[in-house]
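The instructor's notes for this session suggest beginning with a concrete chain rather than abstract definitions. Hand out the sequence below and ask the class to guess, before any prediction is shown, which regions might be ordered.
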Amino acid sequence: MRWQDFRRSGNVEDRRGQGGFRVPGGRGGLGIGTVLLLGLIGYALGIDPRILIGGAEIFTRGGSTTQQAPAPSAERTGAPTDETGQFVSAVVGDTEDRWRVIFQAAGRQYQPAKMVMFDGVTGSECGTAQSAMGPFYCPLDGRVFLDTSFLTELERRFRGCNGKACQFAAAYVISHEIGHHVQNQLGILPKVQQAQRGISQEEANRLQVMVELQADCFAGVWAYHAQQKLKFIEPGDLEAAMQTASAIGDDKLQRQAQGRVVPDSFTHGSSEQRVRWFTTGLKGGEMAQCNTFDAQQL
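After discussion, reveal the predicted structure:
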């Protein structure tokens, strides 16, 4: 992936190195304290906790759990100077450039999300952000939260993803979270939150799957327009992104975790759906093609 020509975003908050307590050797998923906290916040604000954490399930298995958010300190803003920070800032910067043009063509104005880079644990309007949660979008403050250790975790977990190809897989995940911000800008998230109230868990899950698959499609839309402008995709990149999208399908994760698949409990979509919707956005580059809420297309 050739990202060096991407414009660096100034909407980056670098909170790495601010402390926080990590539980050594912690394994798996969201901590029960985090689940309860997000549940209470969602209940109090009338927001489904699954939307608050966006893509939290992506890297929960195999991660470390953390506790105790650090005390606030002076924020470092702008593009970081280290390679990891430069990469993240570059991907975010290009999503800003592409979505600004796409929104303008639709007669809208795009307001960029903030990217918060941290390590271990930090605070957000949606509750404590922990490394075990993986990257997620918080609609309450319009920020994407990213513990940059996920870049290393990506390479460790998905065999065959390495080097520049692994970077494109990481860019897919980041642009997926930005896709949630696009949904928020378009008013889609508030409508889904409203619709999820007073319906069964199975129906709420189905709506959440539609949200996540649309974010996958929006990630593909970004990649399409970035490729048209900068020709940044290299051999092996698409295969790595497809492998990542497939590996984080609900069916595959459930089969690995419990040996069986329960479709009614899906919250992100199957491996086939995730790959298909990312590919839809990548091939067409049109937001209108990302209407996952048309049940006939799922």
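Then share the key points. Residues 12-297 form one domain. The radius of gyration is 18 Å.
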